[in-house]
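FAQ

Q: What does a record look like?
A: Structure on top, sequence underneath. For example:
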């Protein structure tokens, strides 16, 4: 209870701190705006960059351009009004306060302190204190649509104006601190139902007179379990703290007091001007002011942000690129007004003003993000915009969506059901006590039982609590921590698997989460990207179409990657205008950066497609030479041409095109564009002329070969039209609301009336092993869906190449563009699927336009039905959002289907996060997919081992751990229920209290680890060769409610056998040699010992692959109990525990009845399991059993040994055990057990022991001459015992050796042997007639 109130108070205090901080920030922003207006003597509208008149301006010439509303003062003031109004429906901590339907915001989830400080009326120290508290408590502010992040004002060389409320540059990515560890850790742990239950039980045990098991025997195991989890959390968090300290203590060069000063990163503030040298990391998010490189260029490496290792260019604005000297920098005046902190690393909305100049927009290419590194540049100067946790790098450090496996969900449901069973047992026991008190209470007046109704009710209530405590361990307390340990080590096995290590890129497999290990063994649907996932993402220019003619390159034998075509070369030499325009488009419309390295020209491209096109153009005579902020230079047949760069309209997944606007050397303004054929053809002057039709035919031909295609076009712009459009583009580029949408709308106005130049075809070869991998996936019953942005024919061709489609596959094409047409076509496909046979192969091919309608609510189920009836599905021309929607549809609607999404690029992130399991491929498109994934591999072919071996093994191992954990607890604690029937339901425990607590944490701790870590039902090589084995785990045949309750029934049966067989044997109290009789603790510990042996051997029966860990786990667990008894019996009175165990060790270990029972009862209990194991192994017709038998036979052949089959081996061991039981029963029962069965008994011994065990003993005692102790026992048992001498004569020495080993207590042996000899000689005259070989006996 104190812990509960501690956590609750912490949460409420966290909310209070967050709301106080937000209130201060909202009022502080208005204060900052007023200060900035006063400083520059401008009205607020001018400060936003637009006058009153400009804010309402529209497009001038309606005949040339479409009217478009631009942002202005009203829009900005409305947005400010939204900022000023607190959002009461969405609390600061992301939980709806009044509106249950309010949505969480989408900006960020990382803790961010105040951006602005109040001025004048509020204490700056108080704001800083609030900001520090928010960091200390890990407070996370969340924004909504009605509560956007406040804008930021950063003044240049004005420390006083920037010295308020901004986040410190000190970072803390750790999960805990000394102050918050306990409440946060306890809050996380007690969100689990099982831990809450055991905590309540521990609290109930503190009530005097209620707990029959003591006060701490549940609390201490719970503390041990929590301690293991706490140690794991501390180790992980300590690594985070150490990394944070290393980063925070780096040094930077800052402009302070008019000179450069060396400071720590933690001292960097918003508004500082920093100097960053080559190969140094950027301490914060900076606005690039100037660079040592010409034209303000700088090169950065962003591998820490997006995983891309290629260098990216950053360009300072022309107004600041000349500010290289200290005198210029320290006199610089102006301000930057930008959006609040957010996590969009590829976007930046802001404007800046230098002196009295016009407000200019800030482009993302002018921002240097924290985490990036300066490369190939001597130094740069930058203005600090965001610091610490406000930086975009830290804003992107969000946790991946929490995913829980289906096995875990099913386990939690069964725990709740088991809790219901526990309550049932508690009610039965409490009612049983009530009935016993009524029916038998008068016979036991000394008990002073309750008589009044109030006393009876109170007694019933306390009895209820008592039995809850008594039966609480029916729910396994160690299950959660055991699963965590097993999953953690399984993830290590995945990382250490050398078969999934890619040596070329030095990339191992990576398990970024361990919660989904078993989910890898149940995958039924795989959703795969194409480029970079199935293909290599290494592009090579193969073909092109120019002016209606197709050109196919012939690979040179000397340089295979060089495109060579004689006809094209001839046209280039003749100066063909069409070919020249096409090649100039290839060489100019891109974002490639040229570099001169060792005298050679190299291209650094953000996209492999762009690099391949620019390289091909250079090979054909149009060489891209240099790039500056305002110009591009190419060389055409050795002659330089300089083009003035006017605008760049970048590529996006929505636009599917890129264009540049240039001023040619002749003074013309041209728009060059490239993109997908669908978007280019829509914008042509005439899409139905001969050139367009011919080129479309070439595009289809390229796509049929699996090549990636692009269309190239151009347009000559009128100067007046361009100037009007440029004004609109400027207004859109400085907009603070919906900037991207306005820029795209403006681009639509200029990208029209295009003239088609041609098309290119680039080859992206398949990765190694992809066709074989997809064939194995299909054989395993996994359906593979390919979701790509390529053309339909290209996707189909890739499907044929990678074996997703076969030549005899019937393709169902869905290309319609309206909802009615899509619905009609899907209905026709339903008829086709219903009429087709199982042997018919069907594949659904759907375009992105048709998919948009197919995913609508009225059509989604119909689309899903058709897709599920097809063996393969290919979705082409799809957007990233559509990829995620397809995955979510299958995940939500297909019952029992585990989905897996695999991709390599940023456009695959949403799909990866939407699937049950997300796989990222570490490819050439960076690490965005890897960072968002659950598991990461370097090649698609590694997916086979990840699923078929690790997935199948982990599924079987985890499910066995879960089943076994339920089994072992129910087996022991059900005996408390049986014992209640013999103690009047008094709540008396059957076992000593601390042995109960040690059951899960000591004696049965290792067997689950043996089952969950090293067991292998089939070898890895066999699983890779036989993909059909995967279907066993895929269909959930090894874990479901039925199997779980079979295990529970088996545990109940074992508890009955162990309790009643031992109870019957000791019912009247077997006398000891000193005349004492056995009591409760002797009986209880005998049953406990037999239970430990039974439960541990049960785990051994389910281990297929025995290794050192398995032997230590099984035999070490049994030995640990005997060591525990020997030690625990000596601790009292040194320690105030275990008084019941004093002297019990000598009575247990010194009594032959104890040994007889701990061998007999486990064997009786496990006999059905043993027989089931033999029968299923020998006659099982499943593929798994057949493979196991074949593996054993192959193993025997490889060893060249004469070992018997497992059936014969199991049978032999079984006969040995049965013979041993009979021998023990005979010696225990002596004359009483023979009665009229003397002949049958001796006959059984003759056959079972002599015939069944002779070969067994011979094999296990091959080196008899070297085993002196065996020889001594053999001699002793042969010549000193009359029965042994007679058995030696008729059966051989090996049998006598076995008997001697089984009977270590010679006193008991001699006494029983003499009794048997006398009885046999006097009472068995028929033996000599029945068994000729045993006439003497």
């Amino acid at each position: 209870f104190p812990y509960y109130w501690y956590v609750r108070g912490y949460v409420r205090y966290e909310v209070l701190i967050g709301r106080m901080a937000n209130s201060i920030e909202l009022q502080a922003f208005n204060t900052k705006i007023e200060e900035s207006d006063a400083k520059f003597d401008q009205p607020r509208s001018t400060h936003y960059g637009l006058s009153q008149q400009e804010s309402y301006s529209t497009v001038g010439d309606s005949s040339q351009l479409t009217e478009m509303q631009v942002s202005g003062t009203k829009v900005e003031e409305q947005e400010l009004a939204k900022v000023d109004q607190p959002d009461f429906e969405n609390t600061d901590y992301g939980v709806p306060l009044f509106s249950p339907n309010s949505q969480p915001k989408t900006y960020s989830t990382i803790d961010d302190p105040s951006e602005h400080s109040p001025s004048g009326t509020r204490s700056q120290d108080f704001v800083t204190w609030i900001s520090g508290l928010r960091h200390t408590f890990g407070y996370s502010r969340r924004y909504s649509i009605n509560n956007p992040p406040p804008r930021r004002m950063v003044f240049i060389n004005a420390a006083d104006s920037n010295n308020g409320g901004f986040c410190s540059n000190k970072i803390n990515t750790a999960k805990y601190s000394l102050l918050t560890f306990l409440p946060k850790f306890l809050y996380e742990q007690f969100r689990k139902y099982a831990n809450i239950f055991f905590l309540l039980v521990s609290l109930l045990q503190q009530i005097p007179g209620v707990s029959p098991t003591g006060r701490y025997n549940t609390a201490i195991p719970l503390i041990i379990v929590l301690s293991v989890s706490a140690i794991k959390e501390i180790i992980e968090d300590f690594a985070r703290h150490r990394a944070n300290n290393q980063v925070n203590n780096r040094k930077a060069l800052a402009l302070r007091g008019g000179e450069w000063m060396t400071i720590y990163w933690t001292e960097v503030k918003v508004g500082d001007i920093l100097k960053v040298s080559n190969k140094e990391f950027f301490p914060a998010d900076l606005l690039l002011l100037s660079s040592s490189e010409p034209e303000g260029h700088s090169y950065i490496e962003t591998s820490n942000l997006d995983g891309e290792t290629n260098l990216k260019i950053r360009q300072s604005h022309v107004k600041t690129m000349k500010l290289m000297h200290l005198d210029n920098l320290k006199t610089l005046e102006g301000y930057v007004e930008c959006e609040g902190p957010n996590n969009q690393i590829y976007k930046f909305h802001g404007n800046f003003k230098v002196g009295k100049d016009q407000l200019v927009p800030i482009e993302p290419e002018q921002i240097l993000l924290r985490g990036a590194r300066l490369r190939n540049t001597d130094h740069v100067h930058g203005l600090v915009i965001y610091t610490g946790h406000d930086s975009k790098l830290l804003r992107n450090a969000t946790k991946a969506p929490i995913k829980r496996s289906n096995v875990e969900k099913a386990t939690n449901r069964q725990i709740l059901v088991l809790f219901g069973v526990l309550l049932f047992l508690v009610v039965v026991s409490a009612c049983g006590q009530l009935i016993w008190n009524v029916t038998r209470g008068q016979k036991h007046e000394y008990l002073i039982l309750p008589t009044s109704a109030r006393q009876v009710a109170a007694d019933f209530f306390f009895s209820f609590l008592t039995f809850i405590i008594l039966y609480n361990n029916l729910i396994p307390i160690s299950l959660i921590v055991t699963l965590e340990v097993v999953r953690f080590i399984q993830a290590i096995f995945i990382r250490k698997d050398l078969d999934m290590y890619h040596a070329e890129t030095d990339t191992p497999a990576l398990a970024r989460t361990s919660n989904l290990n078993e989910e890898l063994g149940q995958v039924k649907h795989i959703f795969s990207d194409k480029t970079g996932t199935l293909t290599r993402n290494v592009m090579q220019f193969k073909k092109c179409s120019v002016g209606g003619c197709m050109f196919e390159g012939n690979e040179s034998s000397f340089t295979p990657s060089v495109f060579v075509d004689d006809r094209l070369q001839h046209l280039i030499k003749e100066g063909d205008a069409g070919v020249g325009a096409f090649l100039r488009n290839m060489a100019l419309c891109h974002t490639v950066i040229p570099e001169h390295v060792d005298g050679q020209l190299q291209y650094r491209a953000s996209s492999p497609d762009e690099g391949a096109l620019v390289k091909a153009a250079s090979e054909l005579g149009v060489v891209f030479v240099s790039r500056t902020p305002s110009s591009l230079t190419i060389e055409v047949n050795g002659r330089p041409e300089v083009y003035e760069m006017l605008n760049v309209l970048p590529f996006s997944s929505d636009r599917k095109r890129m264009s540049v606007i240039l001023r040619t050397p002749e003074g013309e303004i041209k728009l060059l564009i490239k993109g997908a054929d669908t978007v280019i053809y829509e914008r042509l002057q005439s899409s139905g002329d001969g050139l367009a039709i011919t080129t479309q035919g070439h595009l289809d031909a390229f796509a049929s070969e699996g090549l990636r295609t692009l269309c190239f076009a151009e347009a000559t712009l009128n100067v007046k039209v361009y100037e009007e459009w440029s004004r609109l583009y400027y207004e859109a580029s400085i907009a603070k609301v919906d900037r991207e949408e306005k820029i795209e709308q403006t681009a639509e106005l200029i990208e029209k009336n295009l003239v088609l130049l041609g098309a290119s075809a680039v080859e992206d070869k398949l990765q190694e092993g992809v066709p074989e991998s997809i064939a194995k996936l299909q054989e395993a019953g996994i359906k593979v869906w390919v979701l790509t942005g390529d053309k339909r024919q290209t996707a189909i061709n890739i499907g044929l190449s990678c074996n997703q489609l076969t030549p005899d596959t019937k393709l169902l094409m869905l290309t319609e563009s309206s909802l009615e047409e899509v619905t009609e076509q899907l209905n026709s496909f339903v008829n086709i699927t219903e009429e087709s046979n199982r042997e018919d192969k069907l594949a659904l091919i759907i375009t992105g336009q048709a998919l948009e309608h197919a995913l609508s609510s009225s059509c989604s189920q119909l689309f899903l039905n058709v897709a599920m009836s097809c063996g393969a599905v290919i979705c082409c021309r799809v957007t990233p959002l559509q990829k995620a929607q397809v995955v979510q549809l299958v995940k939500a609607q297909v019952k029992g289907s585990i989905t897996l999404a695999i991709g390599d690029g940023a456009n695959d992130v949403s799909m990866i996060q939407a699937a049950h399991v997300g796989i990222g491929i570490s490819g050439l498109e960076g690490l965005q997919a890897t960072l968002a994934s659950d598991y990461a591999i370097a090649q698609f072919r590694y997916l086979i081992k990840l699923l078929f071996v690790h997935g199948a093994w982990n599924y079987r191992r985890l499910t066995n751990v879960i089943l076994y954990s339920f089994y072992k607890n129910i087996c022991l604690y059900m005996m408390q229920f049986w014992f209640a029937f013999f103690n009047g339901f008094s709540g008396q425990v059957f076992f000593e209290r601390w042995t109960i607590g040690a059951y899960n944490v000591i004696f049965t701790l290792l067997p689950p680890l043996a089952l969950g870590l090293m067991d292998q039902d089939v070898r890895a090589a066999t699983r890779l060769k036989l993909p059909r084995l995967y279907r066993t785990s895929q269909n959930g045949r090894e874990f479901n409610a039925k199997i779980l309750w079979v295990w529970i029934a088996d545990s109940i049966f074992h508890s009955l056998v162990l309790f009643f067989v031992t109870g019957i044997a000791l019912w009247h109290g077997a006398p000891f040699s000193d005349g004492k009789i056995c009591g409760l603790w002797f009986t209880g510990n005998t049953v406990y010992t037999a239970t430990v042996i039974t439960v541990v051997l049960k785990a051994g029966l389910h281990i297929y692959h025995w290794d050192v860990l398995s032997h230590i786990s099984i035999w070490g667990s049994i030995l640990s109990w005997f060591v525990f008894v020997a030690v625990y019996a000596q601790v009292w009175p040194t320690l105030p525990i275990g008084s019941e165990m004093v002297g019990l060790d000598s009575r247990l270990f010194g009594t032959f009845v104890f040994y007889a029972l701990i061998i007999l009862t486990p064997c009786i209990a496990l006999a059905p399991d043993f027989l089931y194991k033999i029968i299923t192994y020998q006659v099982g017709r499943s593929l798994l059993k057949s493979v196991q038998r074949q593996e054993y036979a192959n193993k025997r052949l490889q060893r060249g040994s004469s070992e018997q089959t497992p059936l014969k081996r199991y049978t032999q061991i079984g006969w040995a055990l049965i013979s041993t039981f009979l021998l023990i029963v005979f010696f225990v029962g002596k004359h009483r057990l023979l009665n009229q069965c003397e002949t049958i008994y001796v006959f059984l011994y003759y056959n079972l022991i002599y015939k069944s065990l002779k070969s067994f003993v011979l094999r296990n005692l091959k080196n008899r001459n070297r085993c002196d102790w065996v020889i001594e026992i053999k001699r002793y048992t042969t010549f000193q015992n009359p029965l042994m001498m007679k058995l030696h004569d008729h059966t051989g020495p090996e049998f006598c050796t076995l008997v001697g080993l089984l009977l270590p207590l010679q006193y008991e042996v001699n006494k029983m042997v003499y009794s048997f000899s006398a009885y046999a000689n006097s009472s068995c005259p028929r033996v000599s007639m029945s068994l000729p070989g045993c006439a003497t006996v």
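Q: Is there anything notable about this one?
A: Residues 2-40 form the longest helix (39 residues).
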